[in-house]
Amino acid sequence: MGIQNYYGNLKEKFSTRLKRKEEEPAKAIAHPPRMHNLGEEIRLLVHSQSFEKAYSTAAPFLFASLGAWPGYWLFRGMDYHVHRSHIPLPIYIRQTYYQAKVVQLFIIMAGTYTVFRNASRLRLMNANRVAKSS
């Protein structure tokens, strides 16, 4: 009884260890890692309330930026007759291009600053509400 019982216990231990090793790869294959879905994360971000607030805050600046480019070119085109006697046309066009880019950049930076300033105010207001309610 003693020797047979000892060998029986050893056999059970080895068989359970072998079964565990065989089951682990099967589990890994049965449940592959989930793929990171960037499109879904962007969709959730765009449909969030905070994004909507930030976009509504920045919308006037975005539209002003879209109008600034052709508007500045139109202004510079109408003003060329004043400068044509001492600035050649290719140089004037290059100057207009860079100046229009700078105007557009300042408008976008002003919009970005406004969004971040309003977002930090909202965070501070929410933090104060949480502190007062506690």
Explain what this protein looks like in three dimensions.
With 134 residues, the protein is mainly α. The chain has helices at 2-30, 38-46, 49-83, 89-133. It has a domain at 49-133. The chain is built from 4 helices and no strands. The longest helix is centred in the last third of the chain and has 45 residues, at 89-133. The protein is rod-shaped, with a radius of gyration of 34 Å. The relative contact order is 0.07.
Query: What distance separates the N and C termini?
Result: 70 Å
- How many helices? The count is 4
What is the mean pLDDT?
78
Q: Radius of gyration, Cα only, in angstroms? A: 34 Å
Strand fraction equals under 5%
**What class would the helix/strand composition place it in?**
mainly alpha
Helix amount = over 70%
**What is the N-to-C succession of helices and strands?**
HHHH
The major beta sheet can be summarized as: none
Number of strands: 0
Task: Label the overall shape.
Answer: rod-shaped
Which segments are poorly predicted (pLDDT under 50) over 5 or more consecutive residues?
none
Keywords: Membrane, Transmembrane, Transmembrane helix
Transmembrane segments: 54-75, 96-116
Organism: Drosophila melanogaster
Protein name: GEO11850p1
Question: How are the secondary structure elements laid out?
Answer:
Layout lengths: L1 H29 L7 H9 L2 H35 L5 H45 L1
Observed structural traits:
134 residues, mainly alpha, 88% helix
Summarize the structure.
The protein has helices at about 1-30, 40-45, 50-85, 90-134. With about 130 residues, the protein is an all-alpha fold. It has a domain at about 50-134.
